[in-house]
Amino acid sequence: MKMRLVSHTHWDREWFLPASFTREWLGPFFHSLAELMRADPEYCFVLDGQSILLEDAAKCGVLTPELAQELGRYCAAGRLLVGPYYLQPDWNLVSPEALVRNLEIGLRDAALMCEGGVGEPMKIGWLMDNFGQISQCPQIHASFGIDSVFMWRGLTLPPNDVRSEYLWRSHDGSTVQAVYLLDSYRNAMRLLSQGAAGSQDGASSHGAAGSLAASDTDGGQGAPATTQMERRVQAIANRIRPFSPTGLALLMNGYDQEMEPEAVTPALARLAEQGYDMHQTTPGAFVAELGAALNKPGMPPLPVVHGEQYNGRYICVFPGVLSARSYLKRENYAVETEMEQYLEPLMATAMLVGEGSYTQPAEHVEQVWRRILRNHPHDSICGVSVDDVHTDMEERFQRVRDELALLQQDALDALLLPPLADGAAAYPHGPALTDVSAALPHRPAPKDAAVFNPLPYRRSGVVAVELETERLGGTEAVGHEVSDTSDDLYWVTDVPGLGWASVPQVQDSAPASSASGAAAPVVADAVTDVVGNVETRTISNGLLSVTAEPDGTLTLTTAQGTRFTSLLELEDGGDSGDTYTYAPPSIDRVVRGVKPEDVSVRVTGNGTVRATLQVGLTVRLPVGLTEDRTTRAAEEAVVPVFHEVSLDAGAAVLRITSSVRNTVRDHRLRLRFPVEPEMQKLSVGAPFDEVARDASPPAQDETDIGADLRQLMLGAREPDTIRTMPMRDYVCCSNSEGSRGLAVYAPGLFEYEFRDSAVHIPVLRAVGWLARPDVSTRTGDAGPMIATPDAQCLRDTTVEFALYPFESTAERARVPAVAAELRAPLWAFPGRARDTAGLLEIESPHDAVIMSSARVV
Ligand SMILES: [Zn+2]
Q1: 521 exposed, middle or buried (CB, 10 Å; 0-12, 13-18, 19+)?
Q2: Which of 4, 93, 261, 491 lies 20 to 30 A from 480 at CA?
Q3: H/E run at residue 226
């Protein structure tokens, strides 16, 4: 067995302590690392694939100019390996564009450190600890010239095919060489001080191999270090041997927040003298050696895995993080959207067509991006840290919002002319806007407005013009909340791709039915009024008809007669798990639906461009778990729920805003969206992708796992098939003939379960512990047992859904394009655009090309 050792640290910047505490550890860490590298000119070290350690160290004064220079020399010499990421994100919960920026910034920071030397940023994917792998991981890495990755969690290879290496392929054929960390990223942690390692169990992160060191030794207190180390190294090699056709064993010498890298090379040299084929290596050198071994004649071909890797049978992917502290995910989604869909395209258009003096404040924008990204580490955005960490995140989000508002204001100032005085001439050119609510009596004449379309094709639809508010005076205006009165709603036609429509003074004579020329396929050719019927509690627009039933659920009927019933049914069960993992109490009491006497419905907006059903519910839910956590408490409290269901003229999509004031603990509140029993074909939004998933995934069989493999599975696991899966923006269910389907959109929510022919989406999951040792749906620990009262989410929660029934294939129905449109609605401002021409039109079949970024580079 050839044993190769990589020295590294895994740095959870904030987790069981906030960043302000872990920052204190950067001094001891960098000083001992520098000392070690100075003393041993051969020593190499991997800085956890993330450059932010250096940035943090510089900010807190640890990285003095002298130290920076010294570390820079090690980087330039290829001994200190920095990058490729800025930080270690969760790959499912952040925007695809944010993943790209993370790599861009990380590689740039790393390149700066290597300046003037032969070294370069580490061009190896470093997927140490993130909770499951997205389908486009190979393509994203390949697009940065990275053709190999080290990864751990999520592998889907069947037990009889698990190897230490495989090829991993994305849809487009991009393939990376994957090195699978069979027994974790710390199988050889603390080789020189292993006696102490056993005592680290309490702090072991994410249920990884905290007890590994202890289990590898026979307790050899007092035995010579080399002997202990030798036994340990042999044990690792023995475990890995059955899975490594090349005979290469990877030893990962590092641990979470390791402050003292080990001077391991003299001990390795002694082992080499004793005949062991063993030395320290770098990830790049390891991959090169692996490639050479794989090319030898007679070597069996590597298994190829395709797409996402989201399976917890060997090591946890922690599906409960998809819904823990859902408020953080929604806020992150909102600021990412503001940055990617509005600010950057606005700045780009301002530079191209705006006032001559405008230039994008590139440095400021990058600082805002870095601040957004600082909320993306896996322990942060996943919601699995102590409360203080997540309070820090909310403050960061608020600061980002403030900065986005300022930057948007500057770009808009360059782009827009002030509104004309009332009664002045209409804007001379540009698409026409018809005020379909002009027939309403006593309507004040609006000023000019300009409508921005951030997507690369022409669109029509309803916009809200914020006439009475400051254009972007404060943080409120960053959102796109639609006014709750119909007065400010307009039907706008044909806004060019990545461009503006100027809205002229409203013509009093234009009724809704005269609006025409709607180009976007979601909008009907002949737009009819939206009508609401108070008696039947129904709203309809000629395409869709929606009725609020006495039990508070919705019935949705299409023009072709397809009906979906019991939509928005509430389901609430107990949760005795922790932030990582959902677990029902052993005797659960699930509350389903609401009694008619607890439902109130209001119909508004009759005869305008938008009609709305307001559905108020009063739900009584158990206040928490019983003291022994085996069931839900008998005592109940009222939880108010409010749905606003709105239908626009010409829209084939129904939009829903649901608000919950959570007053109870230890529960998971989901909304159900039942589909026809034939609609079992699932296509699910994913970063840069849409993935097909099983409606009824097969049960996992624990007996498939042989003794050899079991020896490697030292961390926490999900022994049963995972049913709650990641999504981005939508889950689409269609029938096998491709003649009908329903797409359920939930922007900013990231978890769904398909069960009993219904999509279930959690609005919130409320738990009181960072991690617990007694979670029934997981084997092993996930982290320290720390109370996290804020993870009970006792706050107001507002989420958005949209429902899109279609009578074709999902592809022809433009399901992903509709997701992009919902994420980036037309945006209206008081004022006049300087130029109404669009800057970009992308034509693709069914608008299947989604533009993730339009920016100045
Ligand atoms: Zn971690």
Answers
A1: middle
A2: 93
A3: helix 225-240
Query: At 216, which CATH number?
Result: 3.20.110.10
Instruction: Give domain status of residue 575, yes or no.
Output: no
386 Cα to the center of ligand 1, angstroms = 14
**Ligand 1 centroid vs 263 CA: distance in angstroms?**
23
Over residues 659-680, the mean pLDDT reads 98
Q: Residue 380 C-alpha to ligand 1 middle, in angstroms?
A: 10
Is residue 656 within 8 A of residue 745, CB to CB? The reply is no
pLDDT given for residue 226 in this prediction: 63
- Tell whether 629 is covered by a domain: no
CA of 90 to the centre of ligand 1 (A): 10
pLDDT tens figures, 134-170: 999 999 999 999 999 999 999 999 999 999 999 999 9
Say which residue the tokens 């800057």 belong to.
839
In a domain, 551, yes or no: no
15 CA → ligand 1 middle, Å? 8
The dihedral built from the CA positions of residue 97, 102, 108 and 111, taken in this order, carries a sign that is negative
Q: Where are the beta strands (DSSP E) in 327-448?
A: 416-417, 433-434
Give the distance (Å) from ligand 1 centre to CA of residue 131: 9
Per-residue pLDDT tens for 325-336? Answer: 999 999 999 999
Would you say residue 71 lies in a domain? yes
What distance lies between CA 69 and its chain's CA centroid? 36
The whole domain housing 306 covers: 2-310
**Closest listed residue to residue 250, CA positions, set 192, 164, 166, 130:** 164
Q: How far is the CA of 793 from the centre of ligand 1 (A)?
A: 23
Q: How far is the CA of 185 from the centre of ligand 1 (A)?
A: 10
